[in-house]
Amino acid sequence: MPKRIVLAITGASGALYAVDFLKIMAELAVEVDGLISAAGEKVLRIELGLAKADLKPVRRWYEAGDFTAPMASGSSRYHGMAVLPCTMGTLGAIAGGQSRNLLHRAADVMLKERRPLVLAVRETPLNGIHLKNMLAAHEAGAIICPAMPAFYHRPAEISDLARDFAMRVASLLGIDHPDRRPWEGGDV
């Protein structure tokens, strides 16, 4: 059975990360079900000129109010979930255990079932509330992975940064891409 994951896209800047993540999932034949907030759709349109229908290979998009969706239950067969990018409001809801919509509930399910939940938080600078919420989510079992691309692989273009970061998120979900180049040391 192929791995299945949930990808949630919120309204933080960084829609390119989600697009590259989906490309990687397609390359690795990982099944993806999607959630996208209204703000996430706006940012996708503003930053990339795309609509959620343009994002492949999402099997199905679920609406925020659909608490009958498979990812709302611990009996679902999802391997994990990435919130990419993750707003501070979404982080706060997850950290506080508030299932106000399907995205929050799906994250709560991942935590209670001890499945990987990667929160690619995207904000700067951070205030004390952001930091406390990150710590609370971490203590509940989430993986906090701020959208901070690495430069040691000498990216030539922004797309290289986005792809490398998307591969890092996939790796945190236990899905490794053969092209991923982890740091292995180097000459100074």
Compact description:
The chain has one domain: Flavin prenyltransferase-like (Rossmann fold, 3-Layer(aba) Sandwich). Helix content is 38%, strand content 16%.
Question: Approximately how much beta-strand content do the residues carry?
Answer: 15-25%
Structural class estimated from helices and strands:
alpha/beta
Order of helices and strands: EHEHEEHHEHEH
| Mean pLDDT across residues | 94
What's the architecture, going by CATH? 3-Layer(aba) Sandwich
Helical run tally: 6
Provide structural commentary.
With 188 residues, this protein is α/β, with parallel strands linked by helices. The protein has a single domain (4-172), classed as Rossmann fold (3-Layer(aba) Sandwich). The chain has helices at residues 15-27, 38-48, 88-95, 102-112, 128-140, 158-172; strands at 4-9, 31-36, 58-62, 80-86, 117-121, 143-144. A 6-stranded parallel beta sheet has the order 3-2-1-4-5-6, sandwiched between helices. The chain is globular, with a radius of gyration of 16 Å. The relative contact order is 0.18. The mean pLDDT is 94.
Which SSEs are present, and which pair or pack?
Elements: E1 4-9, H1 15-27, E2 31-36, H2 38-48, E3 58-62, E4 80-86, H3 88-95, H4 102-112, E5 117-121, H5 128-140, E6 143-144, H6 158-172
Parallel strand pairs: 1-2, 1-4, 2-3, 4-5, 5-6
Helix pairs in contact: 1-6, 3-5
